[in-house]
Amino acid sequence: MRERSPQEIAERSLIKTYRKTLWNPFIAAVKRYELVAPGDRIAICISGGKDSMVLAKLMQELQRHTEHPFELVFLAMDPGYNPANRRLMEENAQRLGIPLTIFESDIFAVTVQVDKNPCYLCARMRRGCLYAKAQELGCNKIALGHHFSDVIETTLLGLFYGAQLQAMPPKLHSKNFPGLELIRPLYCVHEDAVVAWRNYNQLRFLQCACRFTEARDASGDGVGASKRQEIKLLLRELKRTNPNVEKSIFRAIHGLQLDTFPGFKYRGRALSFTDIYNGAAEFGGEDA
After folding, report:
1. Which of 101-110, 130-139, 273-282 has the least mean pLDDT?
2. What is the pTM of this model?
3. Which of 119-133, 134-148, 201-215 shows the lowest mean pLDDT across its residues?
4. How confident is the prediction for the chain on average, in pLDDT?
5. CA distances (Å), 94 to each of 6, 47, 53, 88, 100, in order?
6. Cβ atoms of 69 and 38 closer than 8 Å
């Protein structure tokens, strides 16, 4: 029997070994949130990390098996990686059969000079560059590798540090790039499953490759100064006594009881409990 290539092993493991933990939740999200439509031209945004790489492979598998054809562009931005990190991203893509379209920016050089919220600025700048490039290439959607764990962590970050109960939506329309839509096909995929697939295939991916990530890794506890890493550690502790804590949070953001909230926003409009309660404000409809 012919020996399978690393690409073939990785692809087979997605729909065989990790069918229940990767393929099925991925398909569930695509269907539940109507993320892919016939005729779409989707830019898969490749950072070089494990999440975007597994997203690329899952989207390739979906493209092979779907009855409703769509196009894929595998878009990778080099924000200022050192040569070793750039090479690792390219080698992984070649090994996994992902045809990268790479463009360069100076985002790392800009954000490294910022003291306040550099990661937030970096994320916004990278998003803007990716939107612009995807639009230039004729794409109507961009797909990011945010997964179930990101959704939970972002919700808690907003609650604990942002004084807001706000989730990460599975898709949204771009305000600055009309006609472009962002989708998150890994919305129902747990990070543990991505890690297991990576380890099974003996792959090594980029983390973030900036000085802030390097500082976190050097801390020894996997936390460092990152609030997101603090949340990861908190959830890890909570799961020791309640293994379903993340599932509970995920279900909660799908079933908000708005009539119990003293105030909330809908489509940018602030609504108060007393206004709703007394009938002075109407919730719902296009004008809400």
Report:
1. 273-282
2. 0.89
3. 201-215
4. 89
5. 10, 14, 11, 10, 9
6. yes
- Assigned token pair, 127: 């998003």
Which residue carries 């998150």 as its tokens? 184
Distance CA 36, CA 44 (A): 12
**Contact present, 215 and 145 (Cβ < 8 Å):** no
The amino acid sitting at 71 is E
User: What is the pLDDT, as a whole number, of residue 64?
Assistant: 95
What is d(CA 154, CA 170) in angstroms, rounded to the nearest whole number? Answer: 13
